[in-house]
Amino acid sequence: MRKPVVGVIGNAHRVENRFQVQMVGERNLRAVAEVSGGLPMMFAGAPDITDIGALLDVVDGIVLTGARANVHPTRFNVDPCERHEPYDIHRDEVALALSVACVARGVPLFGICRGLQEMNVAFGGSLHPEIREIPGRMNHRMPRLENGEIHPDPTVVFADRHDVDLTPGGAFARLLGCEKIRVNSLHGQGILDPGKRVLIEGIAEDGTIEAIRIAEAPTFALGVQWHAEYDPQQNPVNRKLFEAFGEAMVERQKAAA
């Protein structure tokens, strides 16, 4: 049996403020290759050059990665605000349609950070642009120095920062073998109202939604708000998630053989 091919969505980026590129963080690619056992294949978050049907004909799974840009508020009927930029409207168009298509076609789907948010919006949910502005919520953004710069040490930036309570008997609790985990936190935007098929399976200690699955999906269709791609080679929680994603792709290959 061939190695599963995993489509990993790209993000719009400008190099030297001149050259438009599509970019994927290497940790996402390594997590797919080293833990899920797949062959990572980046595809563009640009609808004019990414044919979703053709893409799903050649991949065995899809990863919607985290990203700097927020999902555009008009996707859930809210006016945009300069304060919550940048946006990546082209990735929005691809990712939202792709989320629905993956579930419909039984293609394993793993959403990480922005990916979880995209899955929620794709199924009719909404987002809050700054979770920390909701009374009683903590600051879920990455740690910064006193001068406002991002902390230079990635072990500090990606360190576990809060607990997540998992739904007893849910998909995450069964997969991870526990009902409480500890995760990193590097996001501003988060789920406000869950989509119609979005089942909440993990909640942070301050009430922030951290883990979801899509109801009645025929295969793996999970999203996490934390950055699971950072350390799945060592972190047992994140390793089990990427391993389960890989196993779902293998099972799909076997069923199609």
From TrEMBL:
Catalytic activity: 4-(gamma-L-glutamylamino)butanoate + H2O = 4-aminobutanoate + L-glutamate
UniProtKB keywords: Hydrolase
Keyword ATP-binding listed: no
Pathway: Amine and polyamine degradation; putrescine degradation; 4-aminobutanoate from putrescine: step 4/4
Pfam families from the UniProt entry: Peptidase_C26
GO CC terms of this entry: cytosol
GO biological process: polyamine catabolic process
Matching PROSITE patterns: GATASE_TYPE_1 (PS51273)
GO molecular function: gamma-glutamyl-gamma-aminobutyrate hydrolase activity
Superkingdom per UniProt: Bacteria
First-level EC class: hydrolase
Family: Belongs to the peptidase C26 family.
Described purpose of this protein according to its UniProt entry: Involved in the breakdown of putrescine via hydrolysis of the gamma-glutamyl linkage of gamma-glutamyl-gamma-aminobutyrate.
Protein name: gamma-glutamyl-gamma-aminobutyrate hydrolase
Organism: Bradyrhizobium betae
